[in-house]
Amino acid sequence: MGRSVKKGPFVDSHLTKKVDAARATGDKRPIKTWSRRSTVLPEFVGMTIAVHNGKQHIPVYVSENMVGHKLGEFALTRTFKGHTSGKKAVVPVKRGKK
């Protein structure tokens, strides 16, 4: 067993406090966090966590499939606008002398 397995998953302490408080009161409002590096724990399942992407908070509904992943994986920081269309200039065909 490796050392990292013994240490356990990393979760910011302020996030666990917020999740525990929301669980105790049954609050369903999204929990705002800037901690993209925190690992999703089984206690987070069924909650909505608003993860910061550098510009705004993206609401992420946590499901069982997300356990073990990092919160930052679900709030993308870059938007892909797509490649430019393939507009090619029409080149006139040059013909030889007759």
Structure, explained:
With 98 residues, the protein is an alpha+beta fold. It has a domain at 28-77: Ribosomal protein S19/S15 (30s Ribosomal Protein S19, Chain A). Helix content is 18%, strand content 13%. It contains 2 helices and 3 strands. A 3-stranded mixed sheet has the order 1-2-3, covered by helices on one side. β2 and β3 (57-61) form a beta hairpin. It is elongated. The termini are far apart. The relative contact order is 0.16. The mean pLDDT is 91.
Brief synopsis:
The protein has 98 residues and is α+β, with helices and mostly antiparallel strands.
**Overall geometry:** elongated
Question: What value does the average pLDDT take?
Answer: 91
Cα separation of the termini? 82 Å
Run of helices and strands: HHEEE
Structural class: alpha+beta
What's the SSE blueprint?
Layout: H1 3-7, H2 13-25, E1 31-33, E2 48-52, E3 57-61
Parallel strand pairs: 1-2
Antiparallel strand pairs: 2-3
Features:
98 residues, 30s Ribosomal Protein S19, Chain A, 3 strands, 18% helix
